[in-house]
Amino acid sequence: MVPRYHSKQFDPSISEGSLLITESKEAFACLHRELAREIQPKNIVEKIFLADVAACVWEMMRLRRCRDHVINLAFGPAIGEVLDRVLGPPETAAECEARAALERAWFTNPEARREVAQRLAAFQLDEGVIEAAAISSQTVQLELLDRMITAQQSRLHRAFGAISSYREAFAKRVQSAVDRADEQPALAQLDAPERVA
Description:
The chain has seven helices and no strands. The chain has about 200 residues and is mainly α. Helix 2 (about 45-85) runs antiparallel to helix 6 (about 140-180).
């Protein structure tokens, strides 16, 4: 039978399976190290809290990247929408092809980008209207992502609170144990100096 876990020491940090195929194991390990340096976990319970904090922070970063990508993906249709509103829709097949080529080239060709900027400037507009169109076209997705980010932030704050509460409760337990030990007569005799006869 092949052992399920190869490590002799339990590691509660996020597993590689929790990372997306586009995400860097090294970047996550760096985040985990920095959080460990800040939190300084002292036992397995605090290591589990650390793993939860790292997972929360990583998920928030992932969701924020996703939010940016959603907007960036919407730029293509947004360019077409803005140009149609400003210049009117193309009337011929040739105009339609030229407009589509300009919209595609806007992403990679500085000359096409300047041409779009000049056309917008004629109406006292700039590329910000394309960004606005891209964002407004994705409000449902962005609101969902914002709620997910807010949920992760709440989870992160709860994890930090749990670490603080755990440490406070642990400190109280240690103090209580020390106080009880001080009250034991057998321990008091150990502290008493020996009498010389």
